[in-house]
Specification:
Elements: H1 3-6, E1 28-29, E2 36-37, H2 39-168, H3 172-175, H4 178-190, E3 195-198, E4 208-214, E5 217-227, H5 235-247, E6 251-256, E7 266-269, E8 272-275, H6 280-297, H7 301-315, H8 318-374
Length: 387
């Protein structure tokens, strides 16, 4: 309801029309106090009331627009919030679906990994089983080869023992100069630049005198005796020691197939090195080097004796014995390899010879057939045993 309606003010259809357009009485009443007032004053009051109505209408319109704008903004915010919540719900659903897919893939990957691990373990078990079988077969083969080699070695040892027994049963006169001559030839071949000579039978002295020569100068001497006896005698060492002192030699080596009781391969007694014949050449190389080094260093007698004692201690040590045994083993392997190579070459030569003879036989048969066809005359049939 308008302000004029609330105050029972008559409402004109068009208040802006002139007052004389409608008939009025001489007196008008005030809408507030209901007193009689002139028409002019009544028109002024009415205009003010209309102006007040318009202002309130404008104010109400502005307030309604503001409330509409606020409600519209709130609605937009609500719509945006709803859209955000819907988007978040959709995103959560997508994330949940993605997590479910990732979980499924991880589970599938774990299952595949477990299957692969089981397959690998099965393959490894099979491989280990095959490896064990191969190892067993290899062990059996190695044991068979070792047994075969042991049997062959036993046969060779028996032959060697038989030959050694036959040699030991011979007297010194039956043996003659064999060991001495072999030792002399061995040393002369190994040390071509040195002066090596034999002492004739019946003359006093060692069997072989070895003068070590370096750059044309004699550095020292080594004397050797060779004994092939079926029993050991200490006189062997006593004699060689005396020959060493007479020759003023730095070292003395006694090559003997029988060593003192408890000694093996190498033994030092009264300053004389007693060695098995197979060890003499290696010892000669070691002592020759010692003679050259001590000569070049020009050490005194005390130092020379000290170094000689250290050298002899090393020669009789287990370490030196191991090295010498290793040298002998490798040398034996080289000899066996050379013998095996020779056998292989011999087999190749035999096969080649058979092939050559076979070719010759075929060539002879071919010539015979040609001569028989062309009738060259007296063509004799080739001997079936030819070639």
């Amino acid at each position: 309801m308008s302000l004029l309606q609330r105050h029972a003010v008559p409402v004109f259809d068009n208040p802006s029309e002139p007052a004389d357009a409608h008939p009025h009485t001489a007196e008008e009443r005030c809408p507030w106090c209901d007193q009689s007032i002139p028409h002019e004053k009544f028109s002024a009051i009415r205009d003010r009331i209309a102006q007040k109505e318009r202002e309130q209408h404008a104010l109400m319109t502005a307030r309604l627009k503001e409330e509409f704008a606020r409600e519209k903004a709130d609605l937009a915010a609500k719509v945006q919030e709803e859209a955000k919540r819907a988007a978040e719900a959709a995103m959560a659903a997508r994330l949940e679906a993605a997590e479910a897919e990732v979980t499924a893939r991880l589970k599938a990957a774990d299952e595949a990994r477990l299957a692969a691990e089981a397959s690998r373990q099965a393959a490894e078990a099979t491989l280990n089983q095959q490896r064990e079988l191969l190892e067993q077969e290899k062990t059996v083969a190695v044991l068979a080869e070792q047994a075969k080699a042991f049997e062959e070695r036993q046969k060779l040892m028996e032959k060697l023992a038989l030959l050694q027994k036959q040699i030991e049963n011979k007297t010194a006169q039956e043996i003659g100069e064999g060991p001495e001559a072999d030792l002399f030839e061995l040393l002369r071949e190994a040390f071509e630049g040195d002066r090596i000579r034999r002492v004739a039978k019946g003359l006093s002295g060692a069997d072989v005198i070895h003068e070590v020569v370096r750059n044309g100068q004699v550095c020292g001497k080594i004397v050797y005796d060779s004994k092939s006896r079926n029993a050991w005698k200490n006189d062997f060492v006593t004699k060689l020691r005396a020959d060493q002192l007479a020759e003023r030699a730095e070292h003395a080596i006694l090559s003997c197939n029988k060593l003192p009781q408890g000694a093996q391969q190498i033994h030092v007694q009264d300053g004389v090195i007693v060695a098995h014949p197979q060890r003499v050449l290696v010892l000669a190389q070691i002592l020759r080097r010692h003679v050259i080094e001590t000569h070049e260093l020009r050490v005194g007698n005390d130092q020379r004796d000290e170094k000689t004692a250290e050298l002899y201690a090393f020669i009789t040590s287990d370490r030196c014995k191991q090295l010498l045994e290793h040298i002998a083993l490798q040398a034996q392997r080289m000899l066996e390899l050379e013998a095996s190579e020779e056998r292989a070459h011999r087999m190749t030569w035999e096969k080649r010879g058979k092939l050559i003879r076979s070719v010759q036989k075929v060539h002879s048969d071919l010539c015979f057939e040609i001569e028989r066809v062309i009738g060259t005359g007296e063509a004799n049939e080739p001997d079936a045993d030819e070639g």
